[in-house]
Amino acid sequence: MRDFRSRPVPPIDGRCDPAFRALRDAFADNFALHGEVGAAVTVVAGGRVVADLWAGLADAERRAPWQRDTLVNLFSVSKALVTICALRLVAQGALEVDAPVARLWPEFADAGKEDVTLRQLLAHRAGLAAIREPLPLGTALDWRAMTAALARQAPWWTPDSAHGYHSNTYGFLVGELVRRASGKTVGAYLRDEVTGPLGADVSFGVPPREHERIAAFVWNGQLPYAGVDLATLPDEAALRYCAYFNPPGVSGESGWVNTPAWRMAEIPSANGHATARGIARVYTALLAALASRGLDGCRTLIARDVLEHALVEQSSGYDLVLDRPSRFGLGFQLTQPERPMGPNPRAFGHFGSGGALGFCDPDADVAFGYVMNDMGPRWQNPRNRALLDALYASL
Known about the structure:
By secondary structure, the chain is an alpha+beta fold. Helices cover 30% and strands 13% of the residues. Helix 1 (21-33) runs antiparallel to helix 11, helix 2 (77-91) packs parallel to helix 5 (170-182) and helix 2 crosses helix 6 (186-198).
């Protein structure tokens, strides 16, 4: 275990309402106590930005300071963005939650998937949490290759009989339906229909001209590619291995996350890029939709009834992929005792590897974005937990 107790605290930039000083202190302590390298956090409470902070270092050489507009890879925080795109299309009548996926994507009916629905994809119940067919390094950058492999893939379990986190397949599965329903890639749809109108600095597929403001991600340790014979693994082990390492690089590991090719691609389970401010802006728009109120003249992101339906629990309990409890509505992670998003039962959003988090809490009228560039604990992360505890102590 790394010991960070002697690490100095870098200058904290941005602004923070005095009532939320505890949050600023917790943000600073993350650098001193929990090994934070570079990070940002934004909180909107009651429709007002009460904290917008950033600090630390953004480059691999640890010389360039984090800036107000620094982007960073979000990992699974990205899944909520794909979800929003799909739910917006549901609200517009272009997608149906309980229609078979194969109605829009005929090739998907292969291997016994003819009855799998969008609901099952969104709730991680479709049995398509991994691709068993070995795929070469770099395939994750090829949308057509990934979606074709998923169309060929047989479910790992009987759809809707259990749930398991579709860690790297979720974005391709739901994103392909977004593409077929809208005629746009998921990155273009997100930009044109969601983040562009909101003025939120969030995207899939970052153009090269923007790469200079992307923070390098610090990933301590390499994850395995070679030496695994999938044919010899039992199904349970093969499922978990393939979910994260097939194709190699699909999780962003072993330096892939910092390559121009990764940044330009659309890998919507894992490679959204954003500022904390951008993530908080998106969740502020979701709060506005739930409250049927406007947001700075922007159109409603998702119809209230569709969004409320998406927040009804669909999957809960033991997760076949994560080997621990998880809880989902339609696409969004729901708060759970083992990893709460604050104390209130209606909080929803999505965590990302290393501790990143975007969520909102309708009961507290709070939207929250936290991004960072050091791979901390993926499950119960002390950095985001410290920020959440300080936030709710300040309300």
